[in-house]
Amino acid sequence: MWLPDEALRPLGSRRVLVAVGPDDGPVAQTVVDEVAAATSRFGGVLVTGPVTPEDALACDVVLAIVGSAGQVGTASATQPPPAGYLPRTDSYVPAVQAVVDGLLVLGRGAPMSPGMFGLARHDGRTVVVAGDAAGLLYGLHELVRRGAPALTCPDDVVWDLPVHQVRMLDHWDNTVVHPVMGQVERGYAGGSIFWSDGRVRDDLTRVAQYARLLGSVGINAVGLNNVNVHAAEARLLTDHLDDVARLADVFRPHGIRVYLSVSFASPLTVGGLPTADPLDPGVQDWWASAVRRVYETVPDFGGFVVKADSEGQPGPFAYGRDHADGANLLARALAPFSGTVFWRAFVYDHHQDWRDRSTDRARAAHDHFTPLDGRFDDNVVLQVKYGPMDFQTREPVSPVIAAMPRTRLAVELQVTQEYTGQQQHAVYLGPQWDEILRFPLAEDGRTVGYLAAGLPVGTVHRGDDPVPPAGGLVAVSSVGDDEFWTGHPLAQANLYAFARLAWGEEDPDAVLDEWIGLTLGDDPAVRATVHAVLDDSWRTYERYTAPLGVGFMVRPGHHYGPDVDGYEYTPWGTYHFADRDGIGVDRTRATGTGFTGQYAAPWRDVYESVETCPDELLLFFHHVPYTHVLHSGTTVIQHLYDTHADGYDEVVRMASAWSSIEGRVPQAFFDRVTQRLAEQERSAREWRDQLRSAFFRRSGIADATGRTIY
Amino acid sequence: MWLPDEALRPLGSRRVLVAVGPDDGPVAQTVVDEVAAATSRFGGVLVTGPVTPEDALACDVVLAIVGSAGQVGTASATQPPPAGYLPRTDSYVPAVQAVVDGLLVLGRGAPMSPGMFGLARHDGRTVVVAGDAAGLLYGLHELVRRGAPALTCPDDVVWDLPVHQVRMLDHWDNTVVHPVMGQVERGYAGGSIFWSDGRVRDDLTRVAQYARLLGSVGINAVGLNNVNVHAAEARLLTDHLDDVARLADVFRPHGIRVYLSVSFASPLTVGGLPTADPLDPGVQDWWASAVRRVYETVPDFGGFVVKADSEGQPGPFAYGRDHADGANLLARALAPFSGTVFWRAFVYDHHQDWRDRSTDRARAAHDHFTPLDGRFDDNVVLQVKYGPMDFQTREPVSPVIAAMPRTRLAVELQVTQEYTGQQQHAVYLGPQWDEILRFPLAEDGRTVGYLAAGLPVGTVHRGDDPVPPAGGLVAVSSVGDDEFWTGHPLAQANLYAFARLAWGEEDPDAVLDEWIGLTLGDDPAVRATVHAVLDDSWRTYERYTAPLGVGFMVRPGHHYGPDVDGYEYTPWGTYHFADRDGIGVDRTRATGTGFTGQYAAPWRDVYESVETCPDELLLFFHHVPYTHVLHSGTTVIQHLYDTHADGYDEVVRMASAWSSIEGRVPQAFFDRVTQRLAEQERSAREWRDQLRSAFFRRSGIADATGRTIY
């Protein structure tokens, strides 16, 4: 993964002052430890604790937590300095203070919000200041990412702060191996790094490494278990709190709070109550007392993640209550401890009758949740999948995200590549997420990224505005006990990119570039090749799998590989209605399911009309003949033939490009990627040939280019 | 299951002489025990061991093992009688001997071959004689099946003997739960009754019940483990022989020998040798010594069942050897102990490229094995699936069965309902098996049943001919630890029918009638209703699932429920090539894969021509337009529409019929069948609607009857 020892060489070879003390807590101590390890490895010097002015002034780098007004230290006659802060009387202070003051001027006097940091070059010295330990950690890693230039360049200054208050990874890890889903549901990188045989692992070394990696890119929340909560996992909330505490201890030093997925039926199944009705006082008491015990064990516990009334998970519907009742039940138990409920909006009828053309799964979240807008407590975050269906390669963004102005929202992405190649295919998802986050969903032009961050209309992205209390960006993690963490080594880039986009970075290519450098070093050939493999890989994957917004043409159950009608006659609400004449789902208001009506202007009209609907979503919104001519000028069927053939050819080129850098990256890394690219080539060929054959058999229309159809 | 206590009332209420002794072995003892239990329950008397002539003459029923010439007892001045036999000097002997002599005359002096028995009414007494203990057991149960009439009717006589020397059930039981296939591969009735957690169960009570049931219908061989031999099962041959011995001890008293499925790679994987090459002397020694140890532990061990070079199982191909080399390797190790190898002919390429239209899985067994005819040792039985594919609802019979005159053959059927409703659907398979067994496959008109029994051309089915050394009928068992043994209680009838057809019964309706009486008693309403549900159920299932010989339109993996293209683009060789114009596989010599050429006359020509090919196999052998007119006068597409609608309607009628007998059968039995019929109705509706929709979407041709297509 990223952050090999070598990445800390520039910092580690210098004299570094970390101006924190024992009272600054474990995250500050992590900054000290990182610098200590780096300087000890690369010949530099760590200066910390009580220091003389001369020592301080001799430092090349200063990392300091500053006061609320930006002052270095707060000592006065009446107020002693916080432990570890440089005392104001120190002769070194004015120099640092001048830098800090300069930063503050450039930062327009912003108070130091959580996680915020400033990074400056001044007078030949590099200074990182932050208002809290997490900010200092993030500043440290920004320094690491920037490498030697940040320690040598002329004067420069940057302020940075996270756009999303919560930057969360949900692990769909089962504590025991599930007979169908395995240990990690939709996991493609081995077993869980947390759990083994129902309990937390004895050896948490890898968890500590993982926590360090996540902390380095600003992740600050981790869900420890699958949102599908089975009997074994339900006991984490009660009998196995010590397991949760052990993991919390490992994540805490990296600024990460842990969350549990809980079953809404816990009062029944674990508590022995006769009901789990959210309006029942006994149930409320049960949750209050369960939560109290959690906080006694894990004082900085984050809260709950809940999948309720969804795909068989229990929920408030069983008691005639709605999802606001359900979410608020848990929220009120968590409120005294500042805990948060992440309540998933992924609620739909998974026993749909495929014969019923009037029901549209795409409508479900909006139908269920928008009537509840304003009814959720302040510590409820509604967690909405980015699209109305389920993590497809291409979906429109969910209209729910712009439809609940009085509700805190988090947008959920999927780092684990369920429908996007299962970490067998090299698919860099940064561009997909970037498109989603910058999509101007709201009527006033606000983008999904801003909406999820909860920023008010027209807010400038960074800078002096307060970080809003709402929002967050959440993703399902892709990590397992595989030696490369993510199965496909290049899939590490997705984990990295999610964190960086959740922080607020806006350029997925630049983020990928960061990841390459931090992981594989500075070899320009390697950099160029990894870009060649990954830059367009999501669109390449889309070409050979998901034509024009059609999803779910995958093998049922495991979701890998092509199966045109695999989900066509199922209860899952996932149809394309391809017949001998045409394909696609009519979701218009005029003649279809009316889903377009859930969007604000202009999208309700853009999507409604075949004339204005973007090609890439045409079949998501419309059923058209195979001979329909796209904006691109080609017909639907020829587009399908072309993209599947071209997509495969592109995979061949990706594999060929990769083969050119053997010897320039670690051999095991090279070999694993090579093996996965071979599988991707095999699989892409299946996708190409099966879809081309299946649609030729249906349509009877030949490929105008004359390429072979089997 | 069949054989409740009540079934033995007629016998148990009488005075019964069992003329066997301790030296006649455990099967004879089972006859004694059965009579003892019955008489003790129903007020009769068991007479056995040393008896006075008066005692003997007072008996209503006599069961006796007779000598090779039919004499009762063998005592002479120079030769003492075998223990337990009635001594010749006994005044009772002449009366019994007269009956026996009469039987022998009627039986044209046939020597008493294994399992043979005679049953007669004579002078107000009922006599069963057999040449061996197994025959006596079978005669006893024939008496039980016939019930009171056989004990009261005027003089009557019947000789019976099994058509097939080996009547075998293969259990596809894993000793440990397989992560994908579960404990019983293709099992639909719970876990294994043999195995638990890798070892034989402590409590073998249910195994003893099962053995008794199988013995009562003449099953004489049981394979104890899955033909897919995993690591745990491979050790049955070595480390866990004591487990095999415990099961053998339970089966032995019922005339049943046990067999093990073994891995061809055992010398490598278990033996630690560097090769499993069948021509390697070290490998030969390893097998010889492994087999010797088996027989030291289980002296009447039956032999091996082997799936080699098939679906990933190891085999002789890895060493450049053929299947005769492979089978003979094991046969030669078993020969000194009279053991037998059942070597499966289920060998095909399961990594086929669906793009390749020249390869035809249906050809595979014939292509692989017929060149080896004559090369197999005498104690090798080639086990051939009844059809060229894999246990589909409708296939032509396998041409291999008539193509290897110098090889002992067993025909393999499937009692477990893998592709035929998985014991969720009521499907009585007797009529399918009957069609298969009586199919005149050979050029000289011999039927599959005779061929598998190895009888020479023109042999009369029963009577005075010697039972041939070759052949056998084998089936995959359907039994698990479910309370009704087979999941669907009515599926018990299939287990029963297989055994009775393997014995030589020829009328599946009569066999079903036997099963109903033995299981549910004599209520005429029950009898009529079960017939109404089951008699035509196989053809009903065919109607709503498998049109005109098309198979494999099932969900991949578990094989339950419809999926038109589920196996269309897979490596499994299972295609129908349905497009917008037509459907079916061209297997002709003229324009297709040439599979028709594997048949002897007349079938090579009957199947070759669309004009003569039977409707029910049309799409197995030919690709035709949807508008092709069948012999029945309807088009292919209208046939598909009609049969799917009619099949569903028939299921509704079945469920309705069943509901009429509540209160007349045990309630738990009634409830379980009711629940399964509801599932069958749901599933049949899916089959109906999905296939009608899918083929309407493809063909664009409306249902002429105007019924709804969704």
Look at the structure and give the mean pLDDT of chain A: 90
Strand order of the largest sheet of chain A: 7-12-13-14-15-16-17-18
Which fold name is given in CATH as the topology of the largest domain in chain A?
A: TIM Barrel
User: Biggest interface and which pair forms it?
Assistant: A-B, 27 and 27 residues
- Rg result of chain A: 26 Å
Report the major sheet of chain A. Answer: 8 strands, parallel, barrel
CATH class division of the largest domain in chain A = Alpha Beta
* Structural domain count of chain A: 3
Oligomeric category: homodimer
Q: For this structure, what is the CATH homologous superfamily of the largest domain in chain A?
A: Glycosidases
Instruction: Provide the β-strand percentage band of chain A.
Output: 5-15%
N- and C-termini, Cα separation of chain A: 42 Å
**Low-confidence parts of chain A, pLDDT < 50 over ≥5 residues?**
73-77, 79-92, 456-468
At CATH level 2, the architecture of the largest domain in chain A is: Alpha-Beta Barrel
Detailed description of the structure:
- The structure is a homodimer of 710-residue chains.
- Chain A is an alpha/beta fold and 710 residues long.
- Chain A has three domains: 5-160, Chitobiase/beta-hexosaminidase domain 2-like (Chitobiase, domain 2, 2-Layer Sandwich); 167-520, TIM Barrel, CATH 3.20.20.80; 541-585 and 623-699, Alpha-d-glucuronidase, C-terminal Domain (Alpha-Beta Complex).
- Chain A has an eight-stranded parallel barrel with strand order 7-12-13-14-15-16-17-18. Chain A has a six-stranded mixed beta sheet with strand order 2-1-3-5-4-6, with helices on both faces.
- In chain A, β10 and β11 (199-200) form a beta hairpin.
- Chain A is globular, with a radius of gyration of 26 Å.
- The model of chain A is unreliable at 73-77, 79-92 and 456-468 (pLDDT under 50).
- Chain A binds chain B through residues 179, 354-355, 555-557, 562-566, 569, 578-581, 686, 689-690, 693-694, 696-700, 710, and chain B through 179, 354-355, 555-557, 562-566, 569, 578-581, 686, 689-690, 693-694, 696-700, 710.
